[in-house]
Amino acid sequence: MNIEIGTGIYLFQGSSLVVTDETPDTAIADGTPPEIIHQTFKDIGIFEMPAVDAPGTIRGASLGKDAPVPVGWRAVPVRQGLSLLTAGTTVDGTGPIGRMLRAYHIAQWRQDSLFCGSCGTKNTDAPDELARLCPACGRREYPRISPAVITIIINDDDGSALLAHNKKFADGVYSLIAGFNEAGESLEATVAREIREEVGLEVRDIKYIASQPWPFPNSLMLGFTARYASGEIHPDGIEIEDARWFTRDTLPKLPGNGSVSRYLINGWLEGSL
């Protein structure tokens, strides 16, 4: 299946992408042909948004979170789908994967912005831009984007990198230190603060590497490197259960392909960071 931009429809149920049983894993980022969507879901509402990397539009639709998935269809968690699709791809939000994640972000936002935050009236879609419009007070609401940093900390003494196990991770998976930017804070200050708070280390030479749209739930992940400066590892016990220095020969289970965390880890493994 290879659907041109603007023709396939991304159908979501909560945090999952709903596709037909016949859709191969390698094609779920293409969307589903509209005739198949309309044949099964006759009254479903389709929303549109401009594509950010090519001319055309992206179309999506949402089922209720508890709506049953019809026979002949399957629900693929978006995170799982991402790991199936992205070996060897970039994290810059372009291509079919970027369009799928954009559709997912907008689908979530539309569900979260059903009512005006000022007067409580039910919102409509603005006719002239990607926004929700209150027909009573005229308030416009735009997709929420929350900047967050994620950092690979490298120890120049032996070339090792600090990887941490977050309580939310699957058993045995280690990744990077991450956290949301706070009001009035530079991104570099966020990097240093999050590392200090979560593992008790001080870092230097903080450098931006790459960013990734990451709609879990509404983030823009900004990837950095930092060099270890001082301190002993002390996991905070709130988010981080364990953190250690790992060499390239002693790696734990890593996050799947498709995330900027894995992109940064791969860069370290390849010696480019």
Structure at a glance:
By secondary structure, the protein is α+β, with helices and mostly antiparallel strands.
Provide an overview of this structure.
The chain is of the alpha+beta class and 273 residues long. It has helices at 34-40, 78-85, 95-112, 187-199, 260-270, and strands spanning 9-13, 16-20, 47-50, 57-63, 73-77, 124-125, 132-133, 140-141, 146-155, 160-166, 177-180, 202-214, 219-230, 240-246. Strands 9, 10, 11, 12, 13 and 14 form a six-stranded mixed beta sheet that branches. A five-stranded mixed beta sheet has the order 3-4-1-2-5. The protein is globular, with a radius of gyration of 21 Å.
| Share of helix, binned | 10-25%
Overall pLDDT confidence: 90
* Count of helical stretches: 5
E-strand count: 14
What structural class do helix, strand and pairing data support?
alpha+beta
Strand percentage: 25-35%
Uncertain runs are none
Radius of gyration, in angstroms, nearest whole number: 21 Å
- Give the topology string: H per helix, E per strand: EEHEEEHHEEEEEEHEEEH
Head-to-tail CA distance between termini: 37 Å
Tell me the layout of helices and strands:
Layout: E1 9-13, E2 16-20, H1 34-40, E3 47-50, E4 57-63, E5 73-77, H2 78-85, H3 95-112, E6 124-125, E7 132-133, E8 140-141, E9 146-155, E10 160-166, E11 177-180, H4 187-199, E12 202-214, E13 219-230, E14 240-246, H5 260-270
Parallel strand pairs: 1-4, 9-13
Antiparallel strand pairs: 1-2, 2-5, 3-4, 6-7, 7-8, 9-10, 9-11, 10-14, 12-13
